[in-house]
Structure prediction request, 228 residues.
Amino acid sequence: QVQLQQWGAGLLKPSETLSLTCAVYGGSFTTYYWNWIRQPPGKGLEWIGEINHSESTYYNPSLKSRVTISVDTSKNQFSLKLSSVTAADTAVYYCARVTGSGTYYFDYWGQGTLVTVSS
Amino acid sequence: QSALTQPRSVSGSPGQSVTISCTGTSSDVGGYNYVSWYQQHPGKAPKLIIYDVSKRPSGVPDRFSGSKTGNTASLTISGLQAEDEVDYYCCSYAGKYVLFGGGTKLTVL
Prediction:
């Protein structure tokens, strides 16, 4: 059974850096692509970016200048850093697995982490 | 890259069918057969219900079906049940990025 378990700081001040980590339990880590998605309170989903085991990354163009996604294959973990946060970055952040290679969908999700940016 | 367009809300009576549309462009929905749909209960992570336009994961009832014509994908829910009254999101692969729709709230009257 595949499980994604995420953690990180839930309260930040403006200009600080958001940092979240997602650990993957079960299944192959190197076969899939690993993503971050966020959802502001009461709003829709927004894709943040993706990394694979080879550390190839793709980012949402609107966030690209502030986002870094990294991977630690020795621990089956991947991480998100978002710099210079503002109130607009307040959201529930999810990590998720993508099954690629001839298809593309998010089949397993983390439990979500509410990150609030407030002075 | 703009979000995919979904109606903010749809409604239907128990037993009826409803269809939720998801409109994109030839660079996303129309360009790839990688449209997926997610069901989200309040306070929970989204759950995959349709992938590759029309395929259902194991365990998803066959009341849920997907299709695509041109730049518009659709999710149809037949035999509406009270438990279907939650939010639905479409998603499309678009090459080097991914787009979600704004979400649709389904009301079962």
In short: Chain B has a mean pLDDT of 96. Chain B touches chain A through 24 residues (CB under 8 Å). The beta strands of chain B are 9-12, 18-23, 35-40, 47-50, 64-69, 72-77, 87-93, 98-100, 104-108. Chain B is about 0% helix and 45% strand.
